[in-house]
Amino acid sequence: MKIGILISGRGSNMVAITEAVQSGLIPNSEVAVVISDKSKAKGLEKAKALGIETLPITRKGRKRVEHDAEIITELKKREVELVCLAGYMRLLSSDFVKAFPNKILNIHPSLLPSFKGLHAHEQAIEYGVKISGCTVHFVDEHLDHGAIILQKAVEVKDNDTAETLSKRIIKYEHEAYVEAVKQVASGNLKIKGRTAILDELGKSHNT
Ligand code: GAR
Asked: What is the pTM of this model?
């Protein structure tokens, strides 16, 4: 399965997925390209160091659909089948979602549906929850909304700041994203309504 990863910044989830693909932990897959909407994203250098083609595609004042159209073209050119949003801080147009039906994943640093959108860690601390975590889900046309593939729970401590909480959660994000991509790449993950179900027979054959 050819994977395209979209980033806007640091790219630590992108590195986790790429290393898992390159080590064979996610079998029969290849990271074909890493695209960033920010030309100075730190993750671009990390992707290059891993031997992955990188492509900055900035918005340049264009409408969302025009910007997305260029990204879709570049992904299709490389025959990308699965798109992973890894800290990609832009909403996708419905054209983008339709171009890769049930083949776009996202990671979000909270237990959805709580704390959607920006500043999820701040939102969790502000609300006073005792448990937060991360969610890997399919992307649909709504913000942080598509069918959930998996979640990991992480304790929120009384003295946590957004920074300390994000440091605790990010480790689980890497594990969760690798596991989710592995499930999707296995072909055994089916979506029924809002529920993503891993076929148990398929699972036992693939792990
Ligand atoms: C991650 O914590 C990811 O969950 C979050 O941005 C960070 C990117 O880190 N994404 C969102 O908040 C999307 N709504 P990374 O660039 O090191 O992977």
From this structure: 0.95
